[in-house]
Amino acid sequence: MRPHDEDRLLAWLRRRVGPGRPLIGDDAALIELHGGVALTVDTQIEGVHYLPGLDPALMAARLLAVNLSDLAACGAEPAYALLALAAPPGFDHQGFFRSLLAACRRHGVRLAGGDLARSAPTTAALTLVGRRRRGGRFLRRSAARPGDLLWLGGTVGESAAGRFVLALGGAPGFRAPVPVSIRGAAARAAARRAIRRHLAPQPQLELGAWLAHRRRASAIDLSDGLARDLHRLCRESGVGAEIDAERLPLALGFTELCAALGHGPLELALGGGEDYVLLFALPEGVRPPHRLGCTAIGRITARRAVVLIEGSTRRALPPMGWDHLAGQG
Amino acid sequence: MRPHDEDRLLAWLRRRVGPGRPLIGDDAALIELHGGVALTVDTQIEGVHYLPGLDPALMAARLLAVNLSDLAACGAEPAYALLALAAPPGFDHQGFFRSLLAACRRHGVRLAGGDLARSAPTTAALTLVGRRRRGGRFLRRSAARPGDLLWLGGTVGESAAGRFVLALGGAPGFRAPVPVSIRGAAARAAARRAIRRHLAPQPQLELGAWLAHRRRASAIDLSDGLARDLHRLCRESGVGAEIDAERLPLALGFTELCAALGHGPLELALGGGEDYVLLFALPEGVRPPHRLGCTAIGRITARRAVVLIEGSTRRALPPMGWDHLAGQG
């Protein structure tokens, strides 16, 4: 398969599902069932979405977090979860469920049902049901307008760096050894944080709630890399964007860590994926409160192109990043 | 793992989820979101739930059907679907989705979103959202009372026989060859029907709707075998049951087919699984209309035992059948 197969398949699906049914395209399906329900499903497969050998407890918390990130991007309030879990014999179901239930409680989610099967590799699909927030609206990818400022809810690239660190080491986990090839205190400390960021993403529900109460906001959660997800936001809104490379928020020690890993920081920031922060557009003059730690990185344009500004250079930014059907694009 | 691990794990989960939260246990989670929503998820894994090499179009239709059967058992009206699909390179996504969308249209279901990944074996988890039917109620496993009659919505064992026929032959499909070891016109014709029954189960939505409009009815869909699912219904209702082996509805030619396959008809009828017909309890005197083709097979008892009556013999019926974590129980 060629790159971008996932987007192409989704476009084909949308044509078949029919016009006037704008359900496929947002992070969650927003359905008008009894006054507004957001539905989302995400899958985590051992060896595809996470490294083999990951503690089932960590895997469970991560599964919930990446799903909650989709609800955050819709501005929805988490309510219910359904789990389909296929795992091989010997899988630690109790460790998995203890962790999942604890994480559900922290986020006000009720595990409402599921389906269990025996299979390898471990494959967990979690469906979340969210409500429209009281007094709020659902956020859509299609609401960005020329002149809006583009914002990021947190740093980008760090999760991908954490994935690379873990791929060099032993069993993945918070205590995974930092490989000796990563030298220097700054890079090694950054590697520790990157591991944690990769394994335990923090869904931006508070930011999603704040956005849901704006008059107009457009949002997407960054799962497949800033470049690819920005293209998606622009496509849904029928707009383009310019982003400034120098404004991209990077984690402390990230540049040193990238040097040690042999990856370009910009490459990881733009295409590393699994950041699980919100990328959002707001009318100029509307600014998220400081406590939410957001950064303006560019602007929405009427011209339908996605442009990266580096100093005095402007270049088209391709939708590089993770394609779930084709592998790294 | 030992047999019945799935039921044991579910019991453990229920204790952890806490009392007064009777969500886990019914075929779908019945949630009080905005006036009543039923949620269900089912997974189909190549090599676990269906034979390797099955046409993706058939697989898609089957995936929807087994999920709809859960909604039928709750008396819910199908509304939305979410798909999590993990498939290896070369998988016929278009064939799969064409079939899924056509089946969705037939049943009034809207595909509202999903998640795609690349992995083997092909693993598809479908979440369905159903509504409470107008003027109806949701059906629960816990509503059976002593004295109720127990009914079946169709024949049992035929799907399992179809699975055995397919396991003997080449590529699974409606035109799969009937093995030469199955002799005699009656058995061979029964084998053809059993293949179709196995590959294309028909969810009993009309029966579910009828039951949803009764004053009291308890129902479960038979996915793991009559014996195991009857035990579940009884456990949820705090009752027992007696069923009469001679009343179990069997498909035409089923006995001959079982003889050719070397399986006992009663064994398949009680424990074969994947029947996807409804097992339900109704107060005596309430009878489903003839057009729904139901058969009374026994009675709910106050004594908490599940008993099989064969002629003048009575014996305890163990919860044999399919356990998703332990394999055949």
Describe this structure in words.
Two copies of one chain form a homodimer. Chain A is an alpha+beta fold. Chain A has two domains: 25-131, 60s Ribosomal Protein L30, Chain: A, CATH 3.30.1330.10; 141-328, Phosphoribosyl-aminoimidazole Synthetase, Chain A, domain 2. Helix content of chain A is 33%, strand content 24%. Chain A has nine helices and 14 strands. Chain A has helices at residues 5-17, 56-74, 93-106, 158-168, 185-199, 205-212, 226-237, 254-261, 265-271, and strands at residues 29-31, 37-45, 77-87, 110-118, 123-131, 149-152, 218-221, 240-244, 278-282, 295-301, 306-310, 313-316, 322-323, 327-328. Chain A has a seven-stranded mixed β-sheet with strand order 7-9-6-10-8-11-12, sandwiched between helices. In chain A, α2 runs parallel beside α3, α4 crosses α5 and α5 packs across α8 (254-261). The radius of gyration of chain A is 19 Å and the shape is globular. The termini of chain A are close together.
**H/E element string of chain A?**
HEEHEHEEEHHHEHEHHEEEEEE
Write the CATH architecture name of the largest domain in chain A: Alpha-Beta Complex
- Beta-strand content of chain A: 15-25%
CATH topology description of the largest domain in chain A: Phosphoribosyl-aminoimidazole Synthetase, Chain A, domain 2
- Poorly predicted residue ranges of chain A: 19-25
Number of domains of chain A: 2
Fraction of helical residues of chain A: 25-40%
The shape of chain A is globular
Superfamily at the CATH H level of the largest domain in chain A? PurM-like C-terminal domain
Return the structural class of chain A: alpha+beta
